[in-house]
Design goal:
This protein is mostly helical. The protein has helices spanning 2-25, 30-62.
């Protein structure tokens, strides 16, 4: 659960960074938001993959998987 809370915290920090970058950058530093956004998507994808793997391992451990 601690790892999940860290993930949510960093997710919020990334979202706030994107908003601040767009507002303060006045569209001049759109690349900053793009880089942060790309990292954000990678983190979300990695988190989803880790959760999927954990669910599959739990199924196998319970004898429900193939």
């Amino acid at each position: 659960m601690k790892t999940f809370l860290y993930f949510v915290l960093f997710l919020i920090v990334a979202a706030v960074s994107i908003v601040v970058g767009v507002i303060l950058g006045d569209y001049a530093s759109w690349y900053f938001a793009w880089i942060i956004g790309t990292g954000f998507i990678v983190l979300v994808s990695a988190g989803a993959g880790a959760m999927f793997d954990a669910q599959e391992e739990e199924k196998k451990a319970a004898g429900l998987g193939h």
